[in-house]
Amino acid sequence: ADQANQPTPSELEQFAKMFKQKRIKLGFTQADVGQALTDYGNPFSQTTICRFEALQLSFKNMVKLQPLLHRWLEDAENNSVGQRVGEKIQVKKRKKRTSIESSTKGLLEKHFTMHPKPSAQEINNLAAQLNLEKEVIRVWFCNRRQKEKRSHSECDMVGKDVPPLPPSSVGWNTGLP
């Protein structure tokens, strides 16, 4: 690779942050981006795009992916992504985030303490009672279980001499002296 034109870790970090902000603002999911990159060579998984944005890929892979994401972003900003006639790729806009009122959250929390894994019928009943879509209820319970799982794994770490890494301490080996 041409080291003279290679971005620095700091430049990659700035690009990743800007890329994520613009992708979200344009209404594309990480999966949309990964699939759309088929036009630029290879399709990438949602996980790869997620890891790029979180700076969790190797420096070498970040450097390889950055120009593709830059080209995709330019196309997306010029409204040419997912709008080409006759192509099988149809990028869909992300659903608007649902905001749940605190009183509704309270009822969901109460139900969660009794039944963290509600049946399909319980989800239907809650959706009707709370006037929300079934999918919103289902996702809320999934997210709540994940939150519970995270809080338990964080409790397991308490007392161990493993300080958390600060977010900007990405340890890339650039191969430079």
Provide key terms for this protein.
single chain, about 180 residues, mainly alpha, elongated
Question: How would you describe the overall organization of this protein?
Answer:
By secondary structure, the protein is mostly helical. It has helices at 9-26, 30-36, 46-53, 59-77, 102-114, 120-130, 134-157.
Q: Quick summary of this structure?
A:
The protein is mostly helical and 177 residues long.
Uncertain segments: 82-89
Mean pLDDT across residues: 81
Q: State the end-to-end CA separation.
A: 17 Å
According to DSSP, the number of beta strands is 0
Please give the radius of gyration in angstroms: 21 Å
User: How helix-rich are the residues, as a percent range?
Assistant: 55-70%
Beta-strand percentage range: under 5%
In DSSP terms (H or I, runs of 4 or more residues), the helix count works out at: 7
Order of helices and strands: HHHHHHH
- Which structural class is indicated by helix and strand composition? mainly alpha
Biggest pleated-sheet summary? none
General shape: elongated
Topology:
Elements: H1 9-26, H2 30-36, H3 46-53, H4 59-77, H5 102-114, H6 120-130, H7 134-157
Helix pairs in contact: 1-4, 2-3, 6-7
